[in-house]
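Progress note, sequence design subtask.
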C-alpha cells in the first residue's frame, strides 16, 4: 500500500469511477501530504484563485514517472512549487478543506491526462482498499522514526453537504488553469453521498 500519508489514515469516501474519481482520505496521525511517486510537479496552486470553494481548491498535481497524473486536492497549505522535481515521500502540502469540500480531507486521484473526464483506478495503483476504514501503509518519515500518535478519537463522519452550494459549474471557462500557452479544465466535482 502506498498512501499520501504518514501513519494511520481513514478512507472516508470510496473511489466510484466517474461518480467520484478518487479516494477521500483523512490523515489520523499526521496532516502532511507526501508525494506517492517520483515525478515533476506540473501544478501547485489554486484551481481558481478567484473562487477558493471551486473544485480541487488548493491542490498539487504530479506528472509521475509512469506517465500518469497524481492529484492531491483540497490542501490548506502547499509545500512545493510548480516545476519542482519530487521524490516519493517528499512532503508537498498539508491536508485541508479548500475547494468543493465538506470537511478536511485529501481527494487523491490518478488521471491519464491533466484534465477532467478520464481517470484511472487509484485503488489498483496505490493498493489502498476501496472500502471505508482506517489503514496504515507503514510509512514513517526518516527524520522522525517514532511519531507520537494522536489520541484515538472518533472518526470524522461524512459531513452532510446540505447547505453548501454547488459552485463548481462554470459557464464561461472561469477558473481554468493555464500552463504555458495551454488551458486545462481540471474541475473536480466531489460526490455528495
Ligand atoms: Zn473526493
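Output:
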Amino acid at each position: 500500500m502506498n498512501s499520501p500519508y504518514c501513519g494511520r489514515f481513514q478512507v472516508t469516501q470510496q473511489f466510484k469511477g466517474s461518480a467520484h474519481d478518487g479516494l477521500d482520505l483523512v490523515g489520523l496521525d499526521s496532516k502532511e501530504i507526501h508525494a506517492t511517486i517520483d515525478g515533476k510537479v506540473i501544478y501547485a496552486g489554486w484551481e481558481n484563485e478567484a473562487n477558493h470553494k471551486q473544485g480541487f481548491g488548493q491542490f498539487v498535481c504530479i506528472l509521475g514517472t509512469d506517465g500518469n497524473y497524481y492529484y492531491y486536492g483540497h490542501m490548506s497549505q502547499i509545500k512545493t512549487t510548480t516545476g519542482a522535481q519530487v521524490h516519493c515521500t517528499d512532503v508537498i502540502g498539508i491536508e485541508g478543506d479548500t475547494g468543493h469540500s465538506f470537511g478536511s480531507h485529501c481527494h487523491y486521484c490518478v488521471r491519464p491526462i491533466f484534465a477532467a473526464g478520464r481517470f484511472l483506478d487509484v485503488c489498483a495503483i496505490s493498493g489502498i482498499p476501496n472500502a471505508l476504514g482506517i489503514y496504515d501503509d507503514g510509512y514513517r518519515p526518516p527524520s522522525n522514526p517514532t511519531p507520537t500518535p494522536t489520541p484515538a478519537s472518533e472518526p470524522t463522519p461524512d459531513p452532510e453537504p446540505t447547505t453548501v452550494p454547488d459552485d463548481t459549474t462554470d459557464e464561461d471557462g472561469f477558473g481554468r488553469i493555464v500552463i504555458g500557452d495551454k488551458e486545462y479544465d481540471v474541475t473536480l466535482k466531489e460526490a455528495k453521498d
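The chain has two domains: 8-136, 159-188. Work on this subtask will continue into the next period as scheduled.
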